[in-house]
Here is the input.
Amino acid sequence: MYKEKIGMKFYKYHALGNDYIVLEPEDFAVGLTQEKIRRICHRNYGIGSDGILFGPIETKEADFALKIFNPDGSEAEKSGNGLRIFSRFLWDKQKVGADEFTILTAGGKAKAQVQSNGRKVTVEMGQVSFDSTKIPVSGSPREVIAEKMEIDGEIIEFSAATIGNPHCVILQNEVSEAVTRKLGPKIETDSRFPNRTNVQFMKILDRANIRIEIWERGAGYTLASGSSGSAAAAVAKRLGLCDSQIKVHMPGGQINITVSDDFSITMTGSVTKVAEGKISEEVFD
Here is the structure.
């Protein structure tokens, strides 16, 4: 009970404006329920964030294990920005150095390496699949590439992918926050996506650059997302519109993606530490 009375430690970081709070299991004496997650992430009643990174958790399958929670309290399988932030946190805590290490998430194992005195992190995100049974997407087993759906009376072209979590990438001539906020929640919860889906609206700039706007499952409109950038880059290459080295431009900034011939993804981007402190128990009253 002593830890609960003095508060629970938190560490806040952002990756291109996509902010996460890191909580260590041993410091969170009151337990982490969905209601507590929602309260901590609330921009007015809590600290405010796009999600919570809960770890490190002991595992024999990797150097570290991590649970990722959306601000609505649901658990996310994987987050590229979350993995970069958690890697920086491990570096700040002197649990890792310059060498590569592994992190296990619900969406699989990733390799990470911290660079530039903690300000930049490279993550091997794993292999993208377009297989409908793995994403998942309803209907017959297939690669979900350049299919059509109707939303609000408009026919849009989409491709679906998974990199440990589901994505729906929509190719458009122009992308905007307004359209993303309007159509994103409807596509996220469309019946063809039984586990819901992250949504990216993508514009091809040239063979080495794409621009995306993001609606994140369980979080809403988001300034940046590593897994979204990875999925969009993979789709751009799969459609033959981009080459292997792709710069993904998002409202919060840019990440660099390498898409190998088997659609394995390597992502490099920045991480910024924002604050650390203690959460008062009053916030849960």
Observations:
- Helices lie at 2-6, 34-41, 80-92, 177-188, 226-238.
- The first helix runs from residue 2 to 6.
- DSSP finds five helices and 18 strands in the chain.
- Confidence is low (pLDDT under 50) at residues 1-5.
